[in-house]
Design goal:
Elements: E1 11-12, H1 15-30, E2 38-43, H2 48-64, E3 67-72, H3 78-87, E4 93-97, H4 104-112, H5 124-132, H6 149-160, E5 178-182, H7 189-198, E6 202-207, E7 210-215, E8 226-230, H8 235-239, E9 244-247, E10 266-269, E11 286-288, H9 292-310, H10 315-337
Parallel strand pairs: 1-11, 2-3, 2-4, 5-6, 5-9, 9-10, 10-11
Antiparallel strand pairs: 6-7, 7-8
Length: 338
């Protein structure tokens, strides 16, 4: 029989195809602005992945009508540059390419960026809102909270693939889905598990320390997700139950055991390494091998969102928030010199 009699059982979906839809949305938002938005990136390391991300950011900004300035600085000076950028009215958004110190100092730098310019959604207020399932910054629901770029990019991938059920109410559209996320980093894996659970999914979060289940409880009756440790569970217990498997494990050595996948699963890889072998196409119904292009366009979408939010924020309120960031810096200086 010809291949036409037996169509391929797995559809491979590339990130570029998914990004095009978001590019249209971003283009429409950009057309409503009076000037070209300026995104500033700070690179203070020699990490090749960080450099690649910076190059992608530059290329995507150029292709979509945004201004981008990459500033390569010494890591001991990045703090001073961030504070200056917070107060520079010509700068609309700030991104820092991590890791810099590979320590809690990086977390401090994340909190140093003004909320009004944090395109990565890593400041405390945004992270708090995400985990608490609070979707707006204000009581009038005019200013949307910013979500971390990579977790949000994966959500957009799932929306594109129609995994989200649009018949259900907004916020419940993953109800009935079981999803395994292999990665529980504080930057991607844990926030992603929280986002998916807050949207109604039962999420198995897997890392070297074991398995945790994120849900909104039986019948998704809770307002936000809860976490339960699954004692004695391993990856194999999760895969057979999951209609979606999302992986982000660094290193060529790690591979998802294909034979344990549920038949017809949707498989998404967000690692720079390939966590699925080529045989995944014999088991999965949809395979997304990378999401990088989606992540970068989501970054620009976040930049537009914070500009739109700023239009609903009074100047005194912005200045008050900047003073709070600067006061945090003063307290840190006092603690390190005292």
């Amino acid at each position: 029989m010809s291949t036409q009699d037996h169509p391929a059982s797995c559809k491979v979906v590339l990130a570029g195809s998914i990004a095009k839809r978001l590019q249209i949305e971003v283009g429409e938002g950009l057309s409503k602005l009076e000037r070209k938005p300026l995104l500033v990136g700070f690179l203070a390391n020699k990490d090749p992945s960080a450099r690649l991300y910076a190059d992608w950011t530059n290329k995507t900004c150029e292709e979509n009508g945004f201004a981008f300035s990459l500033r390569e600085v010494d890591r001991e000076e990045v703090e001073t540059h961030i504070i200056a950028a917070n107060h520079d009215e010509a700068i609309d958004g700030i991104i820092v390419y991590y890791p810099i110190f590979n320590s809690r100092q990086d977390q401090y730098l994340q909190q140093l960026i003004a909320v009004e310019k944090d395109v990565e959604g890593l400041s405390h207020r945004y992270i708090f809102n995400m985990y608490q399932n609070i979707r707006f910054l204000d009581s009038e629901n005019l200013q949307k909270s910013i979500l971390p770029c990579t977790p949000l990019a994966i959500v957009k991938v799932l929306e594109y693939l129609k995994v989200y059920n649009t018949i259900l109410p907004y916020g419940n559209r993953l109800f009935g889905h079981s999803i395994t996320v292999v990665n529980r980093s504080e930057v991607v894996g844990r926030p992603l598990a929280a986002l998916l659970a807050n949207d109604g999914a039962s999420v198995y979060s897997v890392d070297v320390d074991g398995v945790q289940q994120f849900t909104r409880g039986e019948g998704i009756k809770k307002r936000r997700h809860v976490v339960v440790k699954k004692e004695a569970w391993g990856l194999e217990d999760c895969l057979s139950l999951s209609d979606v498997v999302i992986t982000g494990v660094p290193g060529e050595a790690f591979k998802i055991p294909t034979h344990l996948l549920k038949e017809g699963a949707v498989c998404i890889n967000f690692s720079t390494d390939k966590n699925f072998g080529p045989e995944v196409k014999d088991r999965a119904s949809i395979y997304v091998p990378a999401i990088g292009k989606v992540t970068v366009i989501v970054l620009l979408r976040n930049l537009l969102r914070i500009i739109q939010n700023r239009q609903h924020t009074s100047r005194p309120e912005v200045e008050k928030r900047l003073r709070s960031v600067d006061n945090g810096q003063s307290l840190r200086d006092a603690s390190t010199t005292g």
